[in-house]
UniProtKB/TrEMBL annotation:
The protein's role, per its UniProt record: Catalyzes the sequential NAD-dependent oxidations of L-histidinol to L-histidinaldehyde and then to L-histidine.
Pathway: Amino-acid biosynthesis; L-histidine biosynthesis; L-histidine from 5-phospho-alpha-D-ribose 1-diphosphate: step 9/9
Required cofactor names: Zn(2+)
First-tier enzyme category under EC: oxidoreductase
E.C. number(s) listed in UniProt: 1.1.1.23
Protein name, UniProt field: Histidinol dehydrogenase
Native organism: Mycobacteroides salmoniphilum
GO annotation, biological process: L-histidine biosynthetic process
Gene3D superfamilies linked to this entry: 1.20.5.1300, Nitrogenase molybdenum iron protein domain
Active site, per annotation: 392 (proton acceptor), 393 (proton acceptor)
InterPro entries: Ald_DH/histidinol_DH, Histidinol_DH_CS, Hstdl_DH
Residues binding NAD(+), per UniProt: 186, 250, 278
């Protein structure tokens, strides 16, 4: 998952965001529960509405049997949510500029205003990290250790080796892979706590050889202005020694610009920022992108399931619900050759919603325009559909899933067969759950060791090797009307 979290800690007054709607893809504030209380998603059915209708309002149908499956048609016909980062840039820009100009003091002022607490210092003391780990539930610690172990095993195999190419006698080009020097990892706060996001961001960065890591996570009033203790504990398990109690756009801006802490300690700026957040965090990352590198502009999480008549509707429904649990803007899409399965999944989804903890949030997602069931003629058509959709997470639940998975070109991650649910990838598969959303899997990859590496070309030619190719260099320079380029080569041989 790119843990997009368009809910949680944000910093706009309700008057600016009450128009939030799961059907329009507008913006959320202070968590899903408050949105429902304030009518932010009142244009959609509640769980009780959906259940009274026997689930008929869940997962709208899109019948593509016999339809034109050209890429342009599919892009317009498939369910897709909308988020407009541009719309919040005017609100986020002053926050970023204030932190740029006044550093930590401005960031702490925004924390007091929006998080309801002002930390004593931005940097979390080591004793607090140690205490958080000591007090961590042993079962949670065991689970985190398994997740870390498996993630490290997978990411270790992603390391790249330097390559040396001999172009001609005396002419070599080396590609050397160098890690980013200092990286800021954003870990969201708000209604939920995501230690798994700590694992998924830290492990590839450490494996790449990043020398300096800092985690930024919102301060929590209930924990005395510290980030959630489970976040601190996960960081301690991973050996991350620098954690800042700052979140939202102000946290991103402080990572990018740096500053001085209240105790006079330096808060060094970073070279790159990774990690998910709500739409305001995403907007801040966009505004800071010219100064630092970023991983991606994360959107709401999404799951697509490609299934035939052999799929178990209980599994499919549970998996669709699992991703809808994140966010009212989350997308859950079933692509199937079987109308019978589609009916069974809707019925099973309604039944499971009766005991789902976050039923209102899930229902909002499953009844939104970003979710639905797509009916197709056969698996070949289904493959065309899911390749066009380019889901963040794609499950293959068919009679013979392996060859089907081999035909998938566009997906953030592919989960093969009934025993590889997305939830496994979210936590303990070893794969990374920070993945491209909103169709970006057509051109982008998930977070990996490569995210934190830079390839540098090292060109090493002898005099003879340069002389051999000098005429071609001069010819091309003149063809582009850049004669000084050619002169830089020619003059080396004037006195030879």
């Amino acid at each position: 998952m790119i843990r997009s979290l368009w809910v949680g800690t944000v910093f706009l007054p309700m008057s600016l965001v009450r128009r939030a709607s799961h059907t329009t893809g507008d913006y959320l504030v202070n968590g899903v529960e408050q949105l429902w209380e304030n009518g932010g998603v009142s244009d959609g059915p509640t769980p009780s509405d959906a259940l009274r209708a026997g689930g008929s309002s869940l997962l709208r149908r899109i019948d593509m049997r016999g339809a034109n499956l050209s890429p342009s048609h599919l892009r317009s016909a498939l369910p897709r949510g909308g988020t407009d980062v541009d719309a919040v840039l005017p609100t986020v820009r002053p926050v970023v500029e204030a932190v740029r100009d006044r550093g930590a003091e401005a960031a702490l002022e925004y924390s007091a205003q929006f998080d309801g607490v002002r930390p004593v210092t931005v940097r979390v003391p080591a004793a607090e990290r140690e205490r958080a780990l000591a007090e961590l539930d042993p079962a949670v610690r065991d689970a985190l250790e398994v997740a870390i172990l498996r993630a490290r095993a997978v990411h270790a195999d992603q390391r790249r080796q330097d390559t040396v190419t001999t172009v001609a006698d005396g002419a070599t080009v080396t590609e050397r892979w160098v890690p980013v020097e200092r990286v800021g990892l954003y870990v969201p706060g708000g209604n939920a706590v995501y230690p798994s996001s700590v694992v998924m961001n830290v492990v590839p960065a450490q494996t790449a050889g990043v020398g300096s890591l800092v985690i930024a996570s919102p301060p929590q009033a209930q924990f005395g202005g510290l980030p959630h203790p489970t976040i601190l504990a996960a960081a301690q398990l991973l050996g991350v020694e620098e954690i800042w109690a700052v979140g939202g756009a102000q946290g991103v801006a402080l990572l990018a610009h740096g500053g001085t802490d209240t105790d006079g300690a330096e808060l060094a700026s970073v070279d790159m920022i990774t990690g998910p957040g709500n739409i305001y965090v995403t907007a801040a990352k966009r505004l800071c992108r010219s100064l630092v590198g970023i991983d991606a502009e994360a959107g709401p999480t999404e799951i697509a399931v490609l299934a035939d008549e052999t799929a178990d509707p209980v599994h499919v429904a549970a998996d669709l619900i699992s991703q809808a649990e994140h966010d009212v803007l989350a997308a859950s899409v079933l692509v199937t050759t079987s109308e019978k399965l589609a009916d069974a999944v809707v019925k099973e989804t309604a039944a499971q919603l009766e005991t789902t903890v976050h039923a209102e949030r899930v229902t909002a997602a499953l009844t939104g325009t970003q979710s639905g069931i797509v009916l197709v003629d056969d698996l070949s058509a289904g493959i065309k559909v899911v390749n066009a959709y380019a889901a963040e997470h794609l499950e293959i639940q068919t009679a013979d899933p392996v060859p089907v998975a081999a035909r998938i070109r566009n997906a953030g991650a592919i989960f093969v067969g009934p025993w590889s649910p997305v939830s496994l990838g979210d936590y303990c598969a070893g794969s990374n759950h920070v993945l491209p959303t909103a169709g970006c899997a057509r051109h982008s990859s998930g977070l990996s060791v490569q995210t934190f590496l830079r390839g540098i070309h090292i060109v090493d030619y002898t005099e003879a090797a340069l002389k051999e190719v000098s005429g071609h260099v001069i010819t091309l320079a003149n063809a582009e009307n850049l004669p000084a380029h050619g002169e830089a080569v020619r003059r080396r041989f004037e006195r030879s």
